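seq:
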Amino acid sequence: MNTIDKKQSLGGFEKYLPLWIPLCMAIGVLLSLYTTLGEQIEALAIGGISIPIGICLFFMMYPAVLNLKGSELRKLKDNPKPILLTLFSNWIIAPLVGFVLAKMFLSDHDELFVAVILLSASPCTAMVLVWGSMADGNQEQNVVNTSLNTITIMIFYAPLVALLTGIQNIEIDRWGLAISVLVFIGLPILAGLLTRKIVIPMKGQAWFDETYRPVLGKFSIISLLTTLIVLFALNGNTILGSPEYLLLISIPLLLGFVIVVGINIAMTKLFRLKYREAAVTVIIGSSSHFEIAIATAIAAYGVGSVAALGTTMGLFWEIPIMLGLVYLARYLGRKNFW
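struct:
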């Protein structure tokens, strides 16, 4: 049987994410017009960090880092080529493409420029596990890559964002950027590692994988949608007053997806990867970690900022594009492209 004939799918709620996302955006805008929710949420802050947003972002990140397995990284030596290609795409190709497109289209809009950099410099660690499963890709490679991405974000993300924004002469709080990474990535990693050490010995690996993680996955999506409602409730006036912001940032984001996906498909063909490895390489290499991008934008510019609004547009476009990429990968597989 062809390796891609076995279909895998999202759950009933998750598969409608492309509908829930614009719906939550619309709800947020309506709340900004007819309620004082935005002002009430903005008042709940400590040191410029919104407490409700911080809680939502933690539960967006925490389920993802439950996938982190140090033991998986030892498997790198078994088949390093797909892993290395993915890392090259995540940390070289995607950030450079994002920078060039942001410079072409957003040179006069600093916060939108930063939003594109935050998105393009952040490799995904969570949803790609779902996309890889749907494409019937090599899930062992997927786990290794996501585990490695979780670690490399801690090391490379803040310096890379600082470098690319510095080239454009955009002032950004570098210490704040580093602290954001430690808080929004470091704390969930610590919580995830402690959870594995405590829960698995008590309940067993099977219960952890089949019950605990799926339930937390639901919390992650609910937190994501709640964050969207809050962000658009806070940014409703900005959106209605300057809708061109959404169009402006959508141009480099969409072009960036097309270019990076094209490069990744070409690389996997050039290096003669098989279907299951190629599919995961393209999917992970073309996705972004919108959770950390949103969190960093909020920490740097505030919950009601244009930068925070810009990073949410990365999420708005990524979900349907990644779903489309799954079907494209399966199509190419049926045509024996790889």
